[in-house]
């Protein structure tokens, strides 16, 4: 059965009453955590405070840290020795000087892999390991990072749980890419906790994992059996899953929140999740090579840049900073990766800058994450934008299991479909009409049918792609 209406968002008084694990015999509260947990919680205390600082204070602290990074990069990273000139040497280091540093492209990182590595990483930063990103552009890069960067990843994971007031004792289910090919249906895999970020400091509830290669029916069967409190998965596949639940009258009675990551969120996902499961969607924006970029505000649907982790800049075509309402390239600088500093790195996505948030946090607001250039539609008059396909409407006119729209010419689209049965001519006409209406142009449309439309190598799915040369 489906349920209408959303459960109320917990108030501050309903905050989970979690106490860290104690390392002191006989002492459970207040806990005295062991050294690794203490480090994580020491960072957490600072993140808890810095989120409320005014934007100018946050930026001043960022530049203090950036100066450290610049001096280190100039001294020990061959690629930056000449590129940064004397930037870090003056007594002050501010935005005007910062904006002179050229943007680092994905291709720069690919071509200069060796010379981007530091020759002298401070040993206190820990061992250096690899973090690869295949990226949805299909151009893989490899980034090296220290143990300290991993610790920060964990601290921001924990911040995200706290922001969204999760009950750490609840059951988490995750349907995602599995690099080792494991967690296949019907059973998936079971873990004893939510993962190291949580388990270092807290006792967390059970976690069940399923490989994203499972079909929607297999995912639905597994979820009904597992009956989770929280579900973490990709926004495009969960959209199909929600439709399956609606069509088959299934429910997840305990579910409290749908967590999404890795892909741009389809336009009507939040409404459909509210309608079918009665839950809100909490999205996050992160990348393997740089960590958490932005997290959804606890009180709104937009995102806060994670300024304690990265300098996040949204830049227009001429390289200037975008203001509220403007869309630009996402350029990030890792503040703490002394093994392979990425300074003003163009990650390949676009985002819209938002106005300051009424929640009172000083962390900059990103209103929307728009994905990549290749996910942009080009209209014959030259206008370009990221389309909203309103897939839910299209799915109501025909028995579609999966769809992808590809722009193959200035006036031409290919609609790729996986269907429950062959569509009638009238259904094809209706799908074409709805697609043209949501894209605001009468394209000529060809249909292509597939058994399955595969995801990218890391599980990413693109619901709209353009094959035009851009
Ligand atoms: Zn906010």
CATH level-four homologous superfamily name of the largest domain: ANL, N-terminal domain
> Which hetero ligands occur in this complex?
zinc ion
Tell me the number of strands: 20
Rg over C-alpha atoms, rounded to the nearest angstrom: 23 Å
CATH topology of the largest domain: Rossmann fold
Mean of pLDDT = 90
Number of domains: 2
Give the overall silhouette.
globular
Q: Within the largest sheet, what's the order of strands?
A: 4-5-3-6-7-8-9-10-14-13-12-11
Count of discrete alpha- or pi-helical segments spanning 4 or more residues? 12
Task: Provide the helix percentage.
Answer: 25-40%
Strand content of the residues, in percent?
15-25%
Q: What is the CATH class of the largest domain?
A: Alpha Beta
Biggest sheet statistics: 12 strands, mixed
Class based on secondary structure composition and strand pairing: alpha/beta
- Which runs of at least 5 residues are low in confidence (pLDDT < 50)? 1-14
- How far is the first residue's CA from the last residue's CA? 46 Å
Per CATH, the architecture of the largest domain is: 3-Layer(aba) Sandwich
């Amino acid at each position: 059965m489906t349920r209408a209406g959303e459960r109320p968002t917990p108030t501050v008084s309903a905050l989970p009453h979690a106490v860290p694990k104690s390392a002191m015999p006989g002492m459970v509260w207040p806990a005295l955590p062991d050294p690794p947990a203490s480090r994580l919680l020491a960072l957490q205390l600072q993140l808890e405070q810095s989120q409320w600082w005014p934007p100018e204070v946050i930026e001043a602290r960022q530049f203090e840290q950036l100066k450290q990074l610049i001096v280190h990069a100039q001294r020990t990273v061959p690629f930056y020795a000449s590129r940064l000139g004397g930037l870090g040497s003056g007594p002050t280091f501010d935005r005007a000087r910062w904006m002179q540093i050229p943007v680092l492209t994905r291709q720069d990182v690919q071509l200069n892999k060796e010379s981007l590595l530091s020759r002298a990483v401070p040993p206190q930063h820990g061992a250096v390991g690899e973090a690869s990103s295949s990226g949805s552009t299909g151009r893989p890069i490899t980034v090296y990072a220290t143990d300290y960067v991993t610790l920060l990843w964990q601290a921001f994971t924990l911040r995200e749980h706290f922001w969204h007031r999760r009950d750490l004792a609840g059951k988490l289910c995750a349907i995602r890419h599995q690099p080792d090919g494991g967690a296949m249906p019907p059973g998936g895999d079971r873990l004893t906790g939510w993962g190291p970020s949580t388990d270092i400091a807290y006792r967390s509830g059970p976690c069940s994992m399923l490989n994203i290669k499972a079909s929607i029916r297999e995912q639905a069967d597994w979820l009904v059996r597992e009956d989770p409190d929280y579900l973490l998965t990709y926004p495009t596949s969960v959209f199909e899953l929600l439709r399956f639940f609606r069509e088959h009258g299934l429910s997840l009675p305990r579910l409290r929140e749908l967590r999404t990551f890795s892909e741009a969120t389809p336009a009507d996902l939040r409404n459909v999740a509210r309608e079918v499961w009665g839950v809100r969607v909490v999205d996050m924006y992160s990348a393997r090579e740089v960590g958490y970029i932005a997290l959804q505000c606890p009180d709104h649907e937009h995102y806060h840049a994670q300024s304690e982790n990265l300098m996040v800049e949204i830049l227009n075509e001429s390289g200037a900073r975008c203001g509220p309402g403007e869309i630009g390239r996402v350029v990030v600088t890792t503040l703490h990766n002394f093994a392979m500093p990425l300074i003003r790195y163009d990650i390949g996505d676009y985002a819209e800058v938002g106005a300051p948030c009424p929640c009172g946090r000083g962390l900059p607001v990103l209103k929307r994450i728009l994905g990549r250039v290749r996910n942009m539609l080009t209209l014959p008059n030259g206008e370009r934008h990221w389309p909203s396909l309103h897939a839910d409407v299209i799915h109501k006119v025909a028995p579609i299991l999966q769809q992808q729209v590809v722009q193959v010419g200035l006036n031409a689209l290919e609609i790729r479909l996986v269907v429950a049965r062959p569509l009638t001519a009238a259904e094809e006409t209706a799908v074409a009409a709805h697609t043209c209406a949501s894209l605001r142009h009468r394209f000529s449309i060809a249909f292509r049918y597939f058994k399955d439309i595969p995801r990218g190598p890391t599980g990413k799915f693109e619901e709209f792609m353009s094959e035009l040369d851009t």
